[in-house]
Write a sequence for this structure.
């Protein structure tokens, strides 16, 4: 729809470089989700039971990470982190309670 | 975008209006941008600049006290500039409304600083909360300060100068994937609040997030805002004032005028014009032309309230 500007392009390149590294870390029982431009990245994450996921807010606006009845972060200011360890299998839909159009999913198996 | 021309004002208005239109949900919206004195509802806008008869009140919004990121490292400073601007206005306004996001992170110190600056206007201020005002652990700082005498999460109504004002809260209990939310309890209260009011009573609804759908992709709208608008359908004059999107946007639909005010803290991009609605960094020289306040004038027997958006500079 739009041509990538230079910043988007470098983000895309950076993501392409980082992707194999994050994937490789799946066995480390630690995974990361970044919040950039009001988007959870990756939007969907498949993990094994016992994995700890860390969300980092890289926006200039606070966000939250909320999964109804499962977990709820406080408001995360810029560069603040929230971690949660998944001990039960299942699909965990979550969203930002301040900007509810921001949604994500953690699949635990 | 229609209105009468008023001599010189008409020419300069045409010159400065930079209208950008795009199709939303089958409606054409209009934005005014880069306007030294952006005109709100044009019919009698200039009337309010002089010592206008009738009642004038002010709207400030999105002061985000505590924000210190590159888009504006000193949001408290620009709030103070806005208050100075208000204090210098030729007609002293009757009161002020603040349409939310008083603070950036709901810290007690941020609320204190906001109050210290805003109180320098020596005006009564009627607040509604933004999502940034409910971030403290116990969600009590806003309510302790501004919630007295309000219902639910902070909604209320009052009358001034023959106009019925309703402050609504659409920033709590937001649902995943959704937009702003009023909820059934508040809607039932609104319906009841308006019951028995003469249809000739001018109504002003104000809330943080736009009650109309501006851009759902960025959450700029209110899920059940349409139901609130149903309740005001029969009234001859309805004005809906919002903030949240940090830019002036307006729409007139029948008897209803929708208007959003600038922030006093930082601008946000036009819908879809950036990867996200986050704070927009502009050249330092341009910042103050994108921040500001709105003044609203009501004259008896005029259907529309006149809205003038005044930037901090330019």
């Amino acid at each position: 729809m739009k041509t990538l500007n230079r910043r988007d392009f470098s983000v895309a390149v950076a993501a392409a470089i980082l992707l194999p590294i994050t994937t490789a870390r799946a066995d480390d029982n630690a995974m990361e989700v970044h919040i950039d431009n009001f988007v959870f990245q990756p939007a969907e994450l498949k993990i094994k039971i016992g994995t700890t996921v860390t969300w980092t807010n890289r926006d200039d606006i606070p966000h939250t990470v909320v999964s109804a009845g499962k977990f709820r972060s406080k408001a995360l200011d810029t560069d603040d982190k929230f971690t949660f360890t998944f001990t039960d299998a299942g699909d965990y839909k979550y969203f930002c309670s301040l900007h509810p159009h921001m949604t994500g999913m953690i699949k635990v198996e | 975008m229609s209105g009468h021309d008023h001599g010189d004002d008409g020419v300069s208005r045409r010159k400065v209006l930079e209208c950008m239109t795009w199709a939303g949900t089958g409606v054409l919206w209009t934005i005014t941008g880069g306007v030294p004195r952006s005109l709100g509802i044009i019919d009698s806008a200039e009337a309010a600049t002089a010592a206008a008869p009738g009642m004038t009140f002010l709207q400030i919004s999105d002061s985000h006290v505590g924000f210190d990121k590159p888009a504006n490292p000193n949001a408290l400073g620009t709030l103070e500039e806005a208050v100075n601007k208000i204090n210098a206005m030729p007609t002293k306004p009757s009161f002020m409304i603040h349409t939310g996001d008083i603070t950036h992170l709901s810290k007690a110190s941020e609320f204190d600083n906001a109050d210290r600056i805003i109180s320098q206007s020596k005006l009564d201020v009627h607040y509604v909360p933004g999502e940034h005002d409910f971030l403290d652990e116990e969600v009590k700082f806003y309510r302790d300060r501004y919630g007295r005498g309000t219902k639910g999460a902070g909604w209320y109504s009052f009358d001034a100068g023959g106009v019925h004002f309703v402050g609504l809260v659409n920033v709590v209990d937001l649902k995943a994937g959704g937009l702003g939310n009023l909820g059934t309890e508040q809607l039932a209260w609104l319906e009841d609040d308006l019951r028995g009011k003469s249809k000739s009573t001018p109504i002003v609804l104000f809330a943080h997030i736009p009650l109309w759908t501006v851009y759902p992709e960025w959450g700029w709208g209110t899920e059940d805002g349409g139901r609130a608008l149903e309740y005001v359908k029969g009234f001859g004059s309805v004005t809906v004032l919002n903030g949240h999107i940090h830019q002036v946007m307006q729409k007139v639909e029948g008897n209803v005028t929708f208007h959003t005010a600038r922030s006093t803290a930082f601008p946000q991009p036009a819908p879809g014009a950036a990867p996200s609605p986050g704070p927009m960094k502009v050249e330092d020289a341009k910042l103050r032309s994108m921040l500001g306040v709105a003044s609203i004038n009501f004259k008896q027997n005029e259907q529309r309230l006149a809205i003038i958006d005044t930037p901090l500079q330019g």
Remarks:
- The interface with chain A takes residues 69-71, 104-106, 131-132, 135, 137, 174-179, 216-219, 275-279 of chain B (CB under 8 Å).
